[in-house]
Design brief:
Blueprint lengths: L23 H17 L14 E7 L7 E2 L7 E2 L5 E5 L1 E2 L6 E5 L5 E6 L7 E2 L5 E3 L5 E5 L1 E2 L6 E5 L5 E6 L6 E2 L6 E2 L5 E5 L1 E2 L6 E5 L5 E6 L13 E2 L5 E5 L9 E5 L5 E6 L7 E3 L4 E2 L5 E7 L7 E5 L5 E6 L7 E4 L4 E2 L5 E8 L6 E5 L5 E6 L8 E2 L6 E2 L5 E5 L1 E2 L6 E6 L12 E2 L4 E5 L8 E4 L2 E2 L2 E5 L2 E5 L9 E5 L2 E4 L5 E2 L2
Parallel strand pairs: 39-47
Antiparallel strand pairs: 1-38, 2-5, 3-4, 4-6, 6-7, 8-11, 9-10, 10-12, 12-13, 14-17, 15-16, 16-18, 18-19, 20-21, 21-22, 22-23, 24-26, 25-26, 26-27, 27-28, 29-31, 30-31, 31-32, 32-33, 34-37, 35-36, 36-38, 40-44, 41-42, 41-45, 43-44, 45-46
Length: 495
Amino acid sequence: MQFSCPEQFPGLHEKSARRKSAPTSVKSIMKSIFSATLLATAAVLCAATFAQAQTVSTIYNFTDSATSGANPWYVTLVQGTNGNFYGTTYNGGKTGSGTIFNVSTTGAQKILYSFAGGTTDGAYPTGGLTLGTDGNFYGTTQQGGSESQGIIFKITPSGTYTILHNFNAFVDGAFPWGPPILASDGNFYGTASGGGPNGRGIVYKITSGGTFSEVYQFDVTHGYSPIAPPAQGTDGFLYIPVAQGGTDFCGTIVQMSTAGVLNNTYNFPCGPGGSFPLGPLVQASNGNFYSTTQDGGTNGEGTVYEVTTGLAVTVLHSFGAAFGDGTFPAAGLLLATDGNYYSATAEGGANDDGTLFNTTTSGTYTSLYSFNNSANLLQMSPLSPPVQGTNGLLYGVTEFGGGANDGTVYSLNMGLAPFVNTALFSGKEGETVTLLGTHLTGTTEVTFNGRTANFKVLSETHLIATVPPGASTGPIRVTTPGGELLSRKDFVVKP
């Protein structure tokens, strides 16, 4: 099995081990975690305009205890059918091996599960969770499991936990960083950063019942050590940024079928063109995808880039161009209902504690907020983009900050309207679709691109609807006593 050298790896995110405001104990823990991860993966990881009027609030502080996690790492929250947000922490919980938690919009937090580690359970989850059409959540841990190389798990909103797969580097993959994504065929697809015959990582498929198969093995030529999960385009292909390898060893983007047949590859050129693509791609209504590289760009401090379905890449923003700009952007972007992309930077800003920003698809960049840990131990060092709740607000996590400096959950109010969401925006006539929203009690009509659907309201935040006969691709509209709610994006009606 082949491995890469740690000195070739840009650092994931090595800055988190040297935060100026983090207590020595936290810095030591994170440095140990980073070192252990490198060893475990055999060195796979070898002039801003401020708009500070935006309202940012801390709604929860992690405390690294049996009832609270610590240090959410590369986690984007996901909203459940009960309106709460779900995620993972790398540390904390009953054994210190990480947690699965939920938190309400008002900051009421609950640990759903504490990982035990060892060979009978997972340990140290990164990347958060994915909501399935069954209302359950799917995720991975980076370590633990029967071979101590990570697992895939499923957990219900009430906390019933099931291990679906134990990774084994000599049989399949090892050390997954993020959760699998739900694809249009109803299966989940994900990446593991190591393992496989080449020792370079894999793409896998898994069903909700746990049937696992390997669909692609990474190599040096086409990129290796994937950190980001796949994104599925409207063309059905999987698009995956790959952290290392390629022509210049600065990472790649691969385009492949769900069967693992490689269709195209893009090689990041390093330098101004960007390097070390860490976050997943997100497709906009114009058909192009957008994401970030954590390094490279004009100033060597990361980029926002656009990529077409033909894998032509354009750098839209290079971070660190002026004082107050963010540096070292988080893992990818959020496409919000206003058509803008939102995300965070781990460092930079007015206080060097990280920033929130948005950008248009044409590259108009705005810095929205500078985190400031020096004032009342507020949030700092966000490593992933926020998620947009169905109430219109954005919610995210920071790795550090808060009263115990173990991380926070924050909200960002951009004044965006409420909407309805679903786990999968595609289905056939007659299929049941679960819709998430706010104030759904009293709903009088649900339509799929103008076609009236049968529906049933299950709670204030949850209803089910049947794709009606003759429905075509377009928006879902839900008429409530408070007004009409539009779906986050168009629902694709499959033949």
